[in-house]
Amino acid sequence: MFKGFGKISDLKAYFLRSFMKHWAVRISVLILIILIARQPDIELDHQGKIISYKGLVQPTDYRGVTNTSCTADRLTEVKHPYIENTIPAIAKAFELGANTVHLNIHVTADKQIAVFHDWTLDCRTNGEGVTSEQSMEYLKTLDAGYGYRIGEEEVYPFRGKGVGLIPSLDEVLAHFPQHAFLLNMKTAGPEAIEVLGSYLNKLSSEQRSRLSFIGMQSIAEAINEEFPAQMTYSKEVGKRCLVKYIFIGWSRYYPGSCSNTTLVIPEQFGRILWGWPEQFAARAQQNGSEVYLYQKSQPYSKDSDFREQGIGLFTGDMTGLGESQVPSQ
């Protein structure tokens, strides 16, 4: 049937050898391209930094938590005397070695910016209603520690200890004029974004350089449109960055979506990134970004502390970190 082939089996063997040969060539070429194009080792510019989640938080059971869950009544123990998102907690976090403190913010009814976590007041305070619908003056009258409770026990360790402790962003920046903050704006909508933009406009470029933002994509886009140099991060940015990097990170190309931003990497994704941890961190630093491993919902773990390899730590357990006696950076 085919000249040179005595049997059908000979024909099959020929095509099989040809197929394997071509694939061997293709794989060899691909390996050669990877070796030639591989990013040469880059030296780290600096070691990883520390972001302290909400200043200091208490050990909390986050299992099953959603965006609408109350976490103030899910404490597992009281580890320190501080209430999250308050000036005393922020001060202690910096004292323990944090380079940056993460804070939640809301635009209030009187167009100020309050530092507070929840969309409503009912969970953590003795007040009621939507946080952004209240005035800053009213928020100052509330007990910021009223709703904290250890599990199902009727034990409220901070009740009466948080009166007047909900701060404005103005107060925080005035109290810590040289420190950096990662802000998560909880209030959405055009009016709130306009208030935030107006607030940033009143700050000097040096003051703005100490602020970065994490959270909703709409807020990140609005900030970047008016302040292109402002560092912002959202889940959408993170997905675009990581998907591209996973596929082409072996090459010299570094995605623009991974540049000039604060990259917050969930722990389970780190292991699949090219060059993790040190070379990934070095590439990010070379492109104006800082990388942090997300550890907020668990006790501090030395096993996933890669600061010496350039990966920062986003932690909700600054006291645990201090107790571990890890050398300060």
Automatic annotation (TrEMBL):
Per the record, the domain of life is Bacteria
Family matches, as InterPro entries: GP_PDE_dom, PLC-like_Pdiesterase_TIM-brl
The Swiss-Prot or TrEMBL record annotates one GO molecular function as: phosphoric diester hydrolase activity
One Pfam entry for this protein is GDPD
> What GO biological process, any one, is recorded here?
lipid metabolic process
Report the leader peptide range.
none
Task: Spell out the Gene3D superfamilies in the cross-references.
Answer: Phosphatidylinositol (PI) phosphodiesterase (3.20.20.190)
**Which segments constitute the GP-PDE domain?**
68-326
Q: What is the protein named? A: GP-PDE domain-containing protein
**Naturally occurring in which organism (per UniProt):** Pseudoalteromonas luteoviolacea DSM 6061
Source organism lineage? Answer: Bacteria, Pseudomonadati, Pseudomonadota, Gammaproteobacteria, Alteromonadales
